[in-house]
Amino acid sequence: MNKSRSPYDLDDDETYRRWRDQKLAKAARTLSDLVVEIRNPENPGGAEFDALMQRLRHNNMALYDTGGKAVSKAALRQFGLRFGLVNLDANPYSDEDAVTSLEVKSCRDGAIYIPYTSRAISWHTDGYYNSPERQVRGLILHCARPAAKGGENAVMDPDMAYIHLRDLNPQFIMALSDKEVMSIPPNEVNDFIERGESTGPVFSLTRPGALHMRFTARKRHIRWKDDDLTKEALKALMAFLGSDTPYIYRHLMQAGQGLIGNNPLHDRAGFSDAGADNARLLYRARYYDRIAGTEVEATGGIL
Q1: How far is CA 255 from the centre of its chain?
Q2: DSSP string spanning 143-178?
Q3: What is the CATH number of domain 13-298?
Q4: Residue 279 DSSP SS3
């Protein structure tokens, strides 16, 4: 039996080149190419759903705009179900429904973690510290209230990071696919271990053969494999994330706008609020599922 073709197989350059060329040709050229206006996120219409899926298949993410409508967390969960997002990743600071309200908290309530402060957050994929069996593959990030100033996000399709590194040096992909390349030490809070050490690759494949990326640009509380090739690969990746590549999209989400995707790379600028009554509030739903219907891009290199 012939081996299945995969653009992520380092020994199959022909399939990779075909997939790469199609991926680059169909990628969004501007932020507006990612945006779809939807009237009711709880039940997007057929044309709206198709438009979102087209962007998800080509870019692993899409931005939606409800025109400023208030959207409940229950509606967001229903929205996720339409895309095959079912299994939520709860955490100690998520709400009872496993959807997290991202807002500035006191140290007592969780500000030990940067997402609950107004500070900038460097490039990462969500849940990079999770264990291998709890990898975050799908993400919805919804803006209920923007900050008075700042809070812009930058986002990138992980496939673009993969393409850039593989084109520079395929050995970079091999290094970052090592199962022990990236380790997050145990997280100790109040003298007990809240999360054990998590070790794994940056690049891996899901069972259907789609790319999954686990990454953080943080400098503290992370341990990288100590070899020259890994260091060179990380240097090249950080240079790409700091470049003016057109595949980084920057957007300051307004009320009623949101992002849905296969856990894209993203960062967040620092921000300031006008007051407690109008403080920045985002809802974050993280899933163990990948968006249904987007795996076809990784089976034979055909978009």
Answers
A1: 20
A2: EEE--SEE--EEEE-HHHHHHHHHHH-HHHHHHHT-
A3: 3.60.130.10
A4: coil
pLDDT per position as a tens digit, 9-53: 999 999 999 999 999 999 999 999 999 999 999 999 999 999 999
CB atoms within 10 A of CB 143: 23
Question: Closest Cα to residue 198, out of 213, 218, 214, 176?
Answer: 214
The Cα diameter of the chain in Å comes to 64
For residue 83 the two structure tokens come to 């895309």
Dihedral sign, Cα of residue 14, residue 15, residue 16, residue 19: positive
Pull the structure tokens for residue 36: 């779809």
- Residue with the two structure tokens 């593959």: 137
Helices (H) and strands (E) in the chain, counts: 6, 19
**Tokens 């690049």 map to which residue?**
203
Helices (H), the chain: 13-26, 46-59, 73-81, 158-168, 170-176, 228-241
Q: Please state, in angstroms and rounded to a whole number, the distance separating the CA atoms of residues 175 and 232.
A: 10
Query: Mind spelling out the 3-state secondary structure of 200-224?
Result: ECCEEECCCCCEEECCECCCCCCEE
Question: What does the radius of gyration of the chain's CA atoms come to, in whole angstroms?
Answer: 19
- The pLDDT of residue 107 is above 70: no
Compute the distance between CA of residue 235 and CA of residue 242 in angstroms, rounded to an integer.
Answer: 11
Question: pTM value?
Answer: 0.93
- Phi, psi (rounded to 5 degrees) for 105: -120, 165
Q: Which of 263, 289, 261 is nearest to 203 (CA)?
A: 263
- Provide the token pair at 138: 């799908």
3-class secondary-structure state, position 210: coil
